[in-house]
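Input sequence (125 aa), recorded before submission:
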Amino acid sequence: MIYESGEMYLETILILSKSQPEVHAVDVAAEMKISKASVSRAMGRLRAESCIIIDQTGRIAFTEKGRAIAEKIYERHTVLTELLTSLGVNPETAAADACRIEHDISDETFDCIKAHRDKMSRKKK
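Predicted structure, token format:
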């Protein structure tokens, strides 16, 4: 089972991989503003959970399981941030709140939020 902290690491790896060709533990540490030792321990846990692979050069790559988790959390973050911002929440606050909510919200509730968002965007057209 992947805990919230593991989800945060996976999401960070995904975000970094969108802007750079390779992701290493040092990149994750810099992005999350935490120690390299903490990242090293987390990468060990994620590797043990079969979420990532780390090659001989230290490059981090996703397994199918890890990518699926990362993409799920990232989608939740972006949709929730969008929703909160559309309600008038300051974008910075919306992103911070979305980060907290994304780990605890049920699949059912999130699916309903997405369906509502899609329904509202169709009405606007």
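Checked by second reader. Residues 80 and 101 are 8 Å apart (CA to CA).
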